[in-house]
Amino acid sequence: MGPTTNKALAAPAWRLVAGAGVLGWVLDAFDFFVIVFLFDTLAQNFHVSKGSIVFTLTATLAMRPVGAILFGILADTIGRKRPLILCVLFFSICTVLSGLAPTYGAFLIYRALYGIGMGGYWGIGASYAIECSPPGLRGMLSGIIQAGYPVGYLLAAVVMQTLARSLGWRAVFFVGFPVAILTVILASLAPESGAWKEHRPKSGISVFRSLYANRSVFAYLLLLMTVLIFVSHGSQDLYPDFLRSVLAISSKTILGMDADLAISILFNVGAISGALIFGAFSQRAGRRRAVLLALTIAMISIPAWAFGNSVAMLSLGSFFMQIGVQGAFGVVPAHLNELSPDSSRSLFTGCVYQTGVLLASPAPGLQFMLRRLIGYRWALTAFEACLIMLLMIIIWFGPEAKNRDFLAAREKQA
């Protein structure tokens, strides 16, 4: 694969890959975050405690590495397209089944299975899109891909304010299936990755050998992603529940919407903006510098984000908190793929990301427990401030491979 492949990947067809990657991640995030708006409703429906519903988030997050391994191996051995299509159909069906669950036990099982599909998607979608995009657009595309996550969160908030009120909570688990079909269509029409064709491994064993040969980079990136995911979920998962506990805004509305839902929509606008801005900025300033600047903004936002006592202050704090947190995350798809080995890129990036998710899966439960000891405001503050400072140290001393050529071999051999 020489110059012809580069031209093919830079042609309009790569936009189909990007579209499938972004849409799938939007859908994935939507299907995950509807739960954070349904803690009380689900607890009442299934006759369990709110903590039991929070645990379903942990179960979903904990199963994601399984999906990263299963679908990552497929993507590195048979190509990106077919595993991506299989993955999106799998997690979408699990989501529909979640909405049909008759008992808490069934619901927990479906959410765990959904976690397998959710875990498989990011590694395939991100590697597929970043490999197929022109190098000069990687930062921008990285931000667009990761912006899909807060877009899904925002859509979940909108659907809860509209569809759920008219059709009931079960309906929110069905509305994403047409998007899954659209994602499948886009992926079916897209070209296969030229980088995968160039470095296609001989077998699944070769993929694992490549992973082992690059274990030091894997260990560093795993530490990076674990702390970043702690920061991200610590800033998002329980925040709507925290907002409902703030008496100063409990009876307030914004444009006819309950204040907690309206603020959730607003801070996801900030998250989308942050991912796009810092993803693109990383193309000029470098991946590490972009992340450090984004985290600085998040740190500065903590007082208003956690201690605001008005709609305006909480809105402002949460908006800039998510600009910073998701701005840092907007650099991740490009950064991880550029540092990954050629012949195991989907497995490598997927396992780094999703094993980080597994290690960070206790985040909602830890915050919820910490809330009981020191109150919601201080729990949020202590959790985020400590982890943001740790993350800044990790990224400061880490490597970078901006604009790496995916068609040129550059990996340790087993």
CA-based gyration radius? 20 Å
Counting DSSP H or I runs of 4 or more residues, the number of helices is: 20
Mean pLDDT across all amino acids: 85
Count of domains: 1
Low-pLDDT ranges: 1-10
Number of strands: 2
Decide which structural class fits the backbone.
mainly alpha
- What is the H-and-E element order? HHHHHHHHHHHHHEEHHHHHHH
Overall 3D form: globular
What is the helical fraction, as a range of percent? over 70%
CA(first)-CA(last) distance: 23 Å
Beta-strand proportion: under 5%
The CATH homologous superfamily is termed: MFS general substrate transporter like domains
Describe the structure.
The chain is mainly α. The protein has a single domain, classed as Growth Hormone, Chain: A (Up-down Bundle). Helix content is 79%, strand content 1%. Strands 1-2 form a two-stranded antiparallel ribbon. Helix 2 runs parallel beside helix 5 (81-100) and helix 2 (14-33) packs antiparallel against helix 9. It is globular, with a radius of gyration of 20 Å. Residues 1-10 have low confidence and may be disordered.
Question: Helices, strands, pairings?
Answer:
Layout (H helix, E strand, L loop, with lengths): L2 H8 L3 H20 L5 H8 L3 H29 L2 H20 L3 H29 L5 H24 L1 H5 L9 H13 L4 H5 L5 H10 L1 H22 L2 H7 L7 E2 L2 E2 H27 L1 H21 L3 H20 L1 H8 L5 H16 L2 H12 L1 H21 L18
Antiparallel strand pairs: 1-2
Compact summary:
This protein has helices spanning 3-10, 14-33, 39-46, 50-78, 81-100, 104-132, 138-161, 163-167, 177-189, 194-198, 204-213, 215-236, 239-245, 259-285, 287-307, 311-330, 332-339, 345-360, 363-374, 376-396; strands at residues 253-254, 257-258. With 414 residues, it is an all-alpha fold.
